[in-house]
Structures are given as C-alpha cells and as structure tokens.
Design a protein that fits this description.
This protein is mainly β. Helix content is 7%, strand content 39%. It has a single domain, classed as Beta Barrel (Virus Head Decoration Protein, Chain: A), CATH 2.40.300. Strands 1, 3, 4, 5, 7 and 8 form a six-stranded mixed sheet that branches. The longest helix has 9 residues. The chain starts with 14 loop residues before the first strand and ends in a 7-residue tail after the last strand.
Length: 129
C-alpha cells in the first residue's frame, strides 16, 4: 500500500471581520515576492511602503504601518500599487515579518505597535478537519 500524502490547503484571510483599507505603493529594490500578511513600514524619505524590519532603523522601516492582504510580486526594482489593511482585527498567526517568512520573532512590543495603528492581532484557533 502506498504512503498517503497530506497536503495543507490554507484558504484563510488575514483580516477578521470589518477592516479598513487604503491604496498604497510599495517600493521594491529588485525582483521579490512579499507574502500575504507581510507587515509593512512607511519609508520616511519618500512615503512609499517597505517591508517592516525587526530592529530596523533606516527611514522608518522599524515602525509597522499596515499589512498586505494578498501576495505581491515584483519582477524588478520600482514601485507597485496595492491595497493595504490599515485598521481592524487580523489573524495573528497569519502575520509575516518579511525577513523571517512568518511571525515567530514578533514580540508583545511589536503587537502593541500594530495596535497603536489600529491593527489588532488576535489569536485564532484553527479547527482541524
């Protein structure tokens, strides 16, 4: 008998309930993909958004501003438009720090910083099927 193969299908959305969105522009230094749930920071030099960096100190990249709700892929350097989640409750387990690919290094202080922007991380228990 062959070994069974298990495939995880994650169809969940980052936002929970009523959320607010705003059209924004994200700056890419080159070809890259940002995952859904990626926490974004505002570049203080030009107002575009860049991935949030834990401990970041370059042009505001260490201050969370909004969250991507869909993946965003750039084929080269430049700015791309997207619709950012700017307030509401979000599934904490779906948040992403770009450098980590997940939220494993987010601390309570980072969550408090998100809450100060009206983005409230909520722990959601997934029900197994």
């Amino acid at each position: 008998m062959p070994n069974p193969v298990s495939t995880s299908l994650d169809q969940g959305f980052i936002g929970l309930g009523d959320n607010e969105f705003r059209d924004e522009s994200v700056k890419f230094a080159g070809a890259a993909t940002l995952l859904a749930g990626c926490i974004m920071a505002r570049d203080t030099a030009d107002g575009t958004l860049v991935p949030f960096v834990i401990g970041g100190s370059t042009n505001g990249n260490g201050v969370p501003d909004c969250v991507l709700t869909e993946p965003l892929t750039a084929t080269g350097a430049g700015n791309l438009p997207f619709r950012a989640l700017i307030s509401g409750k979000v599934n904490k387990s779906r948040l992403v720090v770009n450098a980590d690919g997940n939220a494993s290094n987010l601390t309570g202080a980072h969550e408090a910083s998100l809450r100060s922007r009206n983005i409230v991380p909520v722990k959601v228990d997934q029900i197994a099927s």
